[in-house]
Structure formats: structure tokens, C-alpha cells
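User: Here's a chain of 389 residues. Predict its fold as C-alpha cells.
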Amino acid sequence: MIRLARHALGRSRPALAVAVLAALALSACSAPQDSSGNGQSSPEAKKFAAKAQADVNAATARQTPVTAAVPSPGPRPIRNKSIVVIPCSMSVEGCARPARATVDAARTIGWIARIDDPAGDVTKMSAAIQRAIASRADGIVLTSIDAAAVQGDLKAARKAGIAVVCNMCGNTGNLYQAVVPPLEENERAGYLLGEFAYLEARKRFNAPPKFVILTDDEFDTVKARIRGVKKFIADCKAAGAGCQTVAEGSYLASEISTVAPGRVVQLVRSHPDYDVLFAGYDAALNFFAQGLQQAGLAQPGKAFGVSVDADVANTQMIRKGGYQAAAVGFAFARAGYADIDNLNRIFQGKQPVDQGLKGKLIVKGDVPGKAWDGDFDAGSLYREAWGLK
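Assistant: Prediction complete.
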């Protein structure tokens, strides 16, 4: 095992699993070589490959109001509500896009809505929730802030009678009354990217993939994605299809633009036989790809990366045939409407519902001109369901 340098958190900081101002650690473990050749010959491997292809075909297909349905009309919008939107950080695209969409959707039905940006600081996340409580907000919408990070504050909000929902979150203790999308969709995204990587590695290299897996343990959604890709690799091995994990590493969000890319370069150099890098989310992979490019290690003919979010820079990389080959995107603009729809139901004593938000596999040849926010105008369908013109 190769263990790279670890920077410890200062003892003065809160010991929270999602502490964004923490340091980075990357560790790598060599795996024994698989002896199953290119993983294409046995009946089991062929069946496995056929299923992977069917899943990828379905996930790249255009989403429609039928395949990714907006929920049927609930109660008409209640009036005169005030909400506070708290994203993980407005400097992170995957947090900022759904936060802005939530404000837009809230204002569409006449609610007062504002964003309180904690800029990735857990202490400020806590303070933002406390400000929302003090302002007597009716609802709070959080984005990519796991309940485990701010449990005490969420309990205080719920005790004060404030409705609380979240986008892209873990829900320890069921403190959130609704989460969009369900955490299981993130695990599905990880598995799906494993399937894509398997097919793509066979196409490019005539061999099953050799994974480097990188995770950010701050976020339950990212941990779910890692569970998904690891489940895929286990299924691949069980089918005799030849997948391998050659290294694993971890990083924290505060380091993705500073020390993390250099350590990813070191990790890759230690395992030159790898050909797929799985990163937890696009913002991280964007910086890692830049570091690998500068080191001359991002040749798409030798290896490629995959992750989740379909951020603008990453979709451009996919479109141009760069290091990143695929991403699973979630329609973040739609997520804002979904959060408001659930809040409206909760305000009127109804149960939140499945909002139909599903990940889509974004690959070269099917890349939007900007960040992917859905294949159809879900916002208009929500407005129609709310009885608005």
C-alpha cells in the first residue's frame, strides 16, 4: 500500500463528517491482476456486457414527461410563505444552480425567497439555519448539506415548526422532510458510470476497465455513488468479465483546486496500468483533469474519467473528446421546482411525493451546449400542475 501525506484538521474546528475546511488524504492500494483476459469470452461475461449495454442505452435516451414524470397536481399553491435557501456554496455549480432554481420557483408562486450562502463553511451553514429560524421563515431548502453535518440546527428548525427539505443530501435521523432525488439515485449513477466505463474500455482498449476510485467522504451522495461503482465492479468480477480496482483514494472539497490535483497525479503515476478514473463529482474531476493534463497524463487514448453532475466545464470536455468521457447529470433547474412542490404539500399538511428526478448519462455525441438541465421544460409542467399560466 502507498499512503500519501495527510493533513489533519485543526482541533479547534467542529468534528463533522462534512467539514469542508478539512485537508486531503489520498491512499492507493494495489490489486492483484485479473486473469480473465479481456472479459469478453464466457457466456456469463457476454450476458453481463449485454445488460450493461441495455442500461447505458436506456440512460442516454432522451428523457420525456413520461419517463421522468412531474408528479400529478397536488394542492394549489398556498400564499404568503417565506423561505430561505442554503446551498453548500454558491461558488460550486452543483449547489448554485438548484439554489437559484428554487428561488425562481418560489417567486413564481408568490413566495418570498432568499439565498443565504455559507460559502462551504460548516459553521456558517449552522449560522444560516439559525438566522432562518430567527427570521421566522416558513421553510428552509438546503442543497448538498447532509443532515449529519447540522443535526442540532435542523432539530431546532423542526421544533420551531419550520418545514425543511434538501436537494442532493443524506438524511440522517430523517430530519429532512423530503430529499430530491432519493439517495438511491446517486448509487444508481455510480453503477451506471461503471457500466459505461466497462463498455468504453472494451471499445478503446479491448480490455475491461482498471479503476482508480476517488471519493469525498464529506458527502453522503458521493459515498452512495462510490457504493454504486463498487457494486458494479463486484458484479463484473462475479460474471468473470475482468474488471479491477487498482487504486483508491480520498479527497476533500476544500482541496480540489489546490493540493488534490497534484496528489492525483502522484497516484496515477504510481499505477500506470489504470485506464478509468472515477471521481465523486464533476467539480473535482475538472481540476484533476487539469492536473493530469499539465503532467502529460490525460491522453484519452490511454485513460478517461467519469463522474456526476454534468457541469458546464465537464460537458465541454466530453463534447471535445477530452479526458472526461461521461457524466451522469441531474436536472438541477427542475430540482428547484421539486423542492417547492414538496414544501407546498408539507405546508398544507400533505405528504411529500416522488418528484421523478432521474439521472441521465451524458456522453460525447449527446452533449448539451451548456450544463444539462433536462430534456424538456419541467418548469412549465409544474406551473401547469400548480394552476398557473
